């Protein structure tokens, strides 16, 4: 079910995630609910731990999350890859930004 303002529901996202990891395209609703609860619990716990680490400095940062997953190399590598891709996209967007003032002076 798609909500126009927020996109697919969390259950639909979990169902897609499960399918992406090799599960049936239409898993049992109980299975989706269980996996959703596990994911929510994991993310909540991770966020609370990161907040505890960040509170010592006064703010939460990406490095707090990276610190928490430092011993889980597949997760750490994936996060580093995604952060690198995010930076590349930011640089690409910046390269295509049009400076209106410069265009006005050229005309």
Question: Would you give an account of this structure?
Answer:
It is found in: Nucleus. Belongs to the TAF13 family. One of its GO terms (cellular component) is nucleus. The chain has 5 helices and 2 strands, in the order ββααααα. The relative contact order is 0.06. The model has no long low-confidence stretch (mean pLDDT 88). By secondary structure, the chain is mostly helical. Strand 1 and strand 2 form a beta hairpin. It is extended, with a radius of gyration of 20 Å. Helix content is 71%, strand content 4%. Helix 1 (10-20) packs across helix 2 and helix 2 crosses helix 3 (62-68). The protein folds into 2 domains: 1-59, Histone, subunit A (Orthogonal Bundle); 69-107. It has helices at residues 10-20, 29-55, 62-68, 73-96, 100-106, and strands spanning 2-3, 7-8. A two-stranded antiparallel sheet has the order 1-2.
Largest sheet: 2 strands, antiparallel
Q: Which segments are poorly predicted (pLDDT under 50) over 5 or more consecutive residues? A: none
CATH architecture of the largest domain: Orthogonal Bundle
Our count of domains comes out at 2
* Number of helical segments with 4 or more residues: 5
C-alpha termini separation: 50 Å
Shape: extended
* Relevant CATH superfamily of the largest domain: Histone, subunit A
Strand arrangement within the widest β-sheet reads 1-2
What does the radius of gyration come to? 20 Å
Q: Report the β-strand fraction as a percent range.
A: under 5%
CATH class of the largest domain: Mainly Alpha
User: N-to-C SSE series?
Assistant: EEHHHHH
How many strands in all? 2
